[in-house]
Amino acid sequence: MPSTTSSAPLFRCLFCIVLLAPLLFGGCADLKKNFGFTSIDEEGNVTSDDLELPAKELLLQGMSDYSVGKYFTAIEFFEEILNRYPFSPEATLAELKAADCSYHLGRYQEALLLYEEFENRHPTNESIPYVLFQRGMSNFKQIDRIDRDTSGAEKAIVLFRQLLKVYPQSPYAAEAGKRITTASEFLADHEYAVATFYVRSEKYDQAKVRLDYLLTMYPKSQVAGKAAELKGRLEAGDPPRSPLAAWFPKLRLPRWGANHTEAAGSSTVESVPE
């Protein structure tokens, strides 16, 4: 007769295999569900990875992360809604907040695409003034040094002017006007920098063309006075001979305080982070 003592370990082993079989062959999703697997965000923090929730719960968790600046994890919840519940009532807000997350993460080209897609899908949505403002801001945030590409400033001005024309009473109109002024100052400074480069290269005719353009397009800019003075000297045949550093304005974009606001979704108002 077989020993009951020797068969006990074998019985326990078979019992464990029977219990674990559904988990072993059920795939990663079952393992994650039963053992509470977690994911790690870009900063190395352990985060919840329960993406099997209904759309409403996913939205609540995404907004909870978004409200405290956890944009990297919040966007995962919003994208899960769009992937699993694209026709749910929560999907529209998830679209908008996914774009906002990309914006706050500094992914401005991606944010631009997402805002444009939202506007195309929901042209009558009440958040369109905000979306238009954010499209302008996504370009504005890409303004670089004056000797580099100026397209960010140019596109931002176009979008902000469109906002002022179509939605003059929107809560973003005043801020859009300020951004237009700043972007215009940047473009004027760029023209002045190009003109001084031509002066340094003794290409005085080209310098006068750029100065004329500056004074025509940006007559109220801060650098307009120096541009007019430099143009006068060139026309008098007396270009500056001293180092041109004294002719350069102090060129930089101002920092915007927390008193400037933008909306989250259709009604929430929050400060614009810089």
Describe the structure.
The protein has two domains: 37-125, Tetratricopeptide repeat domain (Serine Threonine Protein Phosphatase 5, Tetratricopeptide repeat, Alpha Horseshoe); 126-274, Serine Threonine Protein Phosphatase 5, Tetratricopeptide repeat (Alpha Horseshoe), CATH 1.25.40. The model is unreliable at 1-7, 9-42 and 254-274 (pLDDT under 50). It is elongated. β3 (261-264) and β4 (268-271) form a beta hairpin. The chain is built from eleven helices and four strands. 61% of the residues lie in helices and 4% in strands. The chain has a two-stranded antiparallel ribbon. The protein is mainly alpha-helical and 274 residues long.
Query: Helix fraction?
Result: 55-70%
Q: Provide the low-confidence segments as ranges.
A: 1-7, 9-42, 254-274
Overall 3D form: elongated
Number of distinct helices: 11
Topology:
Elements: H1 4-24, H2 28-35, E1 39-40, E2 46-47, H3 55-67, H4 71-84, H5 91-104, H6 108-121, H7 128-140, H8 151-166, H9 173-200, H10 204-217, H11 224-235, E3 261-264, E4 268-271
Antiparallel strand pairs: 1-2, 3-4
Structural key phrases:
two-stranded antiparallel ribbon, 4 strands, Serine Threonine Protein Phosphatase 5, Tetratricopeptide repeat, disordered N terminus, 61% helix, single chain, mainly alpha, 274 residues, 4% strand
